[in-house]
Amino acid sequence: MTAERPDQFVAVICGALYKAHQSHQQRHDEYKKLLQKGQNPSPDLLKTDTSAEIIYENVKYSFTYNFFFLFLSFIDFNFSFSQNSKIQGKNN
Length: 92
What we know:
single chain; 1 helix; 32% helix
């Protein structure tokens, strides 16, 4: 028994959310680590937007991810389609 592949659009949205959320989480963790060491973190670590690309089934998707408030985000794909999202995750 093999699992059915997800719809292409669903796979791309999930991949974009994962990639963007991981980027945001890494910056957040690095910022906290530097503060705990008593160092002055770079303002770049406070960025709330990320631009990236995903290639899925030989189609390149560019997206911009904007993090707003408590896991509320906005994703803009290929600068032509936008999708609002709410991500559930750990609250730091």
